[in-house]
Write a structure and sequence with these properties.
This protein is an alpha+beta fold. The chain has two domains: about 140 residues, D-3-phosphoglycerate dehydrogenase, domain 3 (60s Ribosomal Protein L30, Chain: A), CATH 3.30.1330.90; about 290 residues, no CATH class. The protein contains 20 helices and nine strands. A five-stranded mixed beta sheet has the order 5-2-6-7-8. A two-stranded antiparallel ribbon has the order 1-9. A hairpin with a 7-residue loop joins β3 and β4. α12 crosses α13. The chain is globular, with a radius of gyration of 22 Å.
């Protein structure tokens, strides 16, 4: 299966790609299923399972599902309109999605949180049902939110399990492992970004690719800027104070002073990442990179490159994102980018690997150095759990993105100091992440049943 740069990076809404965007996408897909059906519908029901149940309220999963059933989609989300629609649904117990009749739906009764065993396909499962005038279920579908805003039905998930046996994607450079990527780069003489672009050209024009990439960076950069200007307390009950503006103001005041320590550059990287993740925690517009919970790492590293690296050029943004997308695709294809499946190593770890590869590429790294940079960044996130306090994408998530960005830059720098030859391959590291995620106890995989989530007061 070909994963486009526009699959890995999607404009959406916070706080979670798998728990907010995914359920909204699933609801939109169910509405399409209803529109294509010959039945006459009168009502809706739904149930959230596994991690979607355990951390659903903190991740606004219920809210996202309700809005999805009302016709909202992540890429065109309007926060002001959403608040009005939620109030109407609460008052009328009805949703009125475009192209369908008004449907009975009382969120308090018709959307259930099932805290029993997860559904068999994935930790993030949900079931949506449509009923007739008698209240009988006449249409039902099971959806799995598999990370990064990707959603599959139960049948699609089962089919995807055998995807490797069906052959490679029909693109010029169909690499499914890092070793294949390096072999193709050596044979073709192309960079990772050039091979990725050639694959993208199979599905869209060069101008479309350039416009799409420009749009992605526009949203990422705007998110950083909004985050650095935002003030107040983040929603959810933890009373976490937004810190990015204060850090930014202090850094700006110190600029040019002899007292500024060299390691202050780390604060700039953390600032950019934290700004994004504070926006995400507030439910703002972000780009999955590859997920919302890890959305700050890659934009922070790209902003660091543009603002702080001598000789940096905006003309290299495309190479950065295309390279990063190639590495993210390997992580997703061979392991996971879902915290509910493999812990935070799959989210911030994958994001750091992607960012390290992108930075290494735009700073002149060879394909071997790019692979080395990604491996270093991912290796030093192995085993990282996902244990959000109160189920919110705030603690430890916001600061964790800052440290992920710092690791990514360090990994790229180390790789550029070498010739690309190293002991542990990226493929071995990704496989280790998969195995570690499989063996990790469920309470450390986005359920808020272990780790910091049970050792920090939730108020």
């Amino acid at each position: 299966m070909f994963l486009s740069v526009f699959d890995m990076f999607k404009v959406g809404v916070g706080p979670s790609s798998s728990h907010t965007m995914g359920p909204m996408v699933a609801a939109a897909r169910f509405l399409d299923l209803m529109r294509a059906s010959p039945f006459h519908f009168a009502g809706l029901r739904g149930s959230l399972h596994g991690s979607l149940a355990f951390t659903g309220v903190g991740h606004a999963t219920d809210r996202a599902t309700i809005l999805g059933l009302a016709g909202f989609e992540p890429a065109s989300y309007d926060a002001g309109k959403a608040e009005k629609v939620l109030a109407e649904i609460a008052a009328t117990h009805r949703v009125t999605p475009p192209g369908l009749p008004a449907l009975a739906f009382d969120p308090a009764k018709d959307l259930a949180f099932d805290y029993g065993p997860a559904l068999p396909g994935h930790a993030n499962g949900m079931i949506l049902k449509a009923t007739d005038a008698q209240g009988d279920v006449i249409l039902e579908e099971t959806y799995y939110s598999i990370g990064g805003g990707f959603v599959l039905t139960a049948a699609e998930l089962a089919e995807a399990g055998g995807a490797k046996a069906k052959g490679k994607a029909d693109v010029p450079y169909p690499f499914e492992t890092a070793d294949e990527m390096l072999a193709m780069a050596a044979k073709s003489g192309l960079s990772v970004a050039q091979m990725k672009r050639a694959n993208e050209l199979k599905y869209r024009s060069s101008a479309e690719i350039d416009r799409g990439i420009a749009r992605l960076w526009e949203v990422m950069d705007a998110c950083i800027s909004r985050g650095m200007a935002g003030t107040g307390i983040l929603p959810g009950g933890l009373k976490v104070r937004r810190r990015a503006k204060g850090i930014h103001d202090a850094l700006m005041a110190e600029r040019g002073l002899n007292m500024t320590a060299p390691h202050t550059i780390n604060d700039w990287m953390s600032l950019y990442a934290m700004a994004v993740n504070e926006e995400n925690a507030a439910g703002g517009q972000v780009v999955t990179a590859p997920t919302n919970g890890a959305a700050g790492v890659l934009p922070a590293v790209l902003r660091y490159y543009l603002d702080h690296v001598p000789g940096a050029s905006t003309a290299r943004i495309g190479d950065f994102l295309l390279t990063a997308a190639a590495i993210g695709g390997l992580c997703k294809h061979n392991a996971s980018i879902s915290g509910a499946e493999c812990g935070c190593q799959a989210e911030v770890g994958s994001a750091a690997a992607m960012a390290a590869a992108g930075l290494c590429a735009v700073m002149g790294g060879t394909a071997m150095q790019v692979e080395n940079a990604a491996e270093i960044a991912l290796e030093h996130h192995l085993g990282m759990t996902c244990d959000p306090v109160k189920g919110l994408v705030q603690v430890p998530c916001i600061e964790r993105n800052g440290l992920g960005a710092i690791k990514a830059v360090s990994a790229a720098s180390l790789a550029l100091r070498g010739d690309g030859v190293h002991l542990v391959s990226l493929d071995a590291c990704i496989e280790t992440m998969r195995q570690t995620g499989r063996d990790m106890h469920e309470k450390y995989k986005e359920t808020s049943l272990g780790g910091l989530a049970v050792n920090v007061p939730n108020c």
